[in-house]
Amino acid sequence: MKKLIAILLLSLFLVSTTELYQLLKLPDLVEHYFEHKRMNPDMPLIAFLKAHYEHPVKDGDYGKDQKLPFIIHAKPLNLIFTIGDELQMDFTKENLRKSYSHKIPSRDEDHCFKGFGGSVWEPPRAFTV
User: Which of 4, 8, 18, 115 has its CA 20 to 30 A from that of 47?
Assistant: First the structure.
């Protein structure tokens, strides 16, 4: 049951935030193709797709053509969060604490392994016990 709910929620999210909703228009594409097939029985699918996607023209069924998938692209869902006027930030001396900085040396000779830095780039040697 959890897997089904996860798939459902993921599907809803992807359909609402990407162009996947265009796939829901595929039945319109099939129906429109069969309309053209009734008018011209010799029309192959490739010719139909070229006429509607490669070189679209404004003809008598232009309104139906605009309902086909991937003809019109909509902007995906955008969520915007704003901060209201009720948010107030009070910066007074009592609210601020003094911060102290400590210098950390970038290289401390006392804590470096002597001779280790140069041997890192040497090829491995045979290990003998």
Answer: 18
